[in-house]
What we know:
3 domains, single chain, rod-shaped, about 25% strand, four-stranded antiparallel β-sheet, alpha+beta
Amino acid sequence: MLEALKRLFDLEKKTIECNQCQSMIDSTYVFCPKCQHPTENYGKPIDYKKKFSQLLIIYGGMFIVVSSFYYMSSNLGLKIYKIEKVKNEQQNATYQCAGFGTESCIDKVRLNFENTNKTILGEEYLGNGQFGFTFIDRNHPGAFTAKINTDCNCTITNVQVSIIR
């Protein structure tokens, strides 16, 4: 195997003797570096098929190695990126949320009430993230009031329910 690779990539350097100055030179030279006389390689056609096969093997191998590393790193990187992105978004939401809800939270609060099977009779924004609701419960007789506190993400933080007498 090693011999085949040496032959394929010309790793074994051959030396030839210059006809003019009798110095030993590399076999790949077409002209002698000392006396500029043409060597025996002068006029020989270049074996392009061999050179092409050498380049094809080298670049093909490099492509396979680089693309496999890219594929492996991109798959792992995307999964890690998505997890970190979700964590960062959750942390940013908690850091940015330092106040109370606004009147725009009424839709979320109303939706939570409707999902509990209660009928809303009236609603109002009391300020500082507090909402007041008057409602009836289909399972219990009578009317009730609820004071609901929300944070700046419109998440319900506290509910106080009392019966109307």
